[in-house]
Write a structure and sequence with these properties.
alpha+beta; Pnp Oxidase, Chain A; 7-stranded antiparallel sheet
């Protein structure tokens, strides 16, 4: 847990619930350890650079939270510097709810998952939307070469705090890309066995003119 995370997450009402379940004293020691923003660590940088998706939470003008999936090739979520992350926002369902919400309230939260290794990173930050006519160079830098998607805008998030979450209850899930190396091994093994079976069948066939 980063130094600033508890100060954001553990409000008085959260503390009341922690008191009910006996964890308030444990987490109280983590409050007021420093002011944000917290620096992105090398571990966080490497983790984010390898991900192909995350979940983005924003707050609407009506007060309702909104959670949106964001995906792309591994590495599309970029660490810009020690306190900033960003990504190219690809064209989607044309609802623009997250983009509109950020225009009214720039506070966001990200949950970034690594299902195969049961790891989860939570990030608090403040987002800024950048359109191509505002900063074409930035949009180009956030883009992903050879990825067939329309980049409508870029998003920069100034990270305030982050926390590695407990892996309990995270069900391991694997993408095709995760499984492909193992599938290749199985395919090669199957091909070898089929060739071996063919050779055995050929050796067992009686030769022409032979006795039966």
């Amino acid at each position: 847990m980063s130094a600033h995370y508890a100060d954001i997450a553990f409000t008085d009402r959260v503390g009341d619930v922690q008191q009910r379940y006996g964890s308030q004293k444990f987490y109280a020691r983590r409050r007021h350890r420093g002011t944000g923003p917290d620096r992105i660590t090398p571990e966080v940088r490497a983790f984010l650079g390898a991900r192909d998706s995350f979940y983005l939470a924003t707050v609407s003008e009506s007060g309702w939270p909104y959670v949106q999936f964001r995906g792309g090739p591994p590495g599309f979520l970029k660490v810009r510097d020690d306190t900033t992350i960003g990504w190219a926002d690809f064209q989607g369902n044309l609802q623009y709810i997250s983009t509109g919400n950020v225009a009214g309230d720039n506070r966001v939260a990200l949950i970034v998952m690594d299902y195969p290794h049961r790891r989860r990173l939570k990030i608090y930050g403040r987002a800024r939307v950048v359109f191509p006519d505002d900063d074409a160079a930035l949009i180009a830098d956030l883009g992903v070469p050879d990825y067939d998607a329309v980049v409508e805008r870029g998003v920069l998030v100034e990270v305030e705090a982050f926390d590695w979450n407990c892996q309990q209850h995270i069900t391991p899930r694997y993408s095709v890309a995760d499984l492909e190396p193992h599938l290749d091994t199985l395919r090669n093994r199957i091909a070898d066995l089929e060739a071996e079976n063919t050779a055995l069948r050929d050796n067992c066939r009686p030769s022409e003119g032979g006795t039966r």
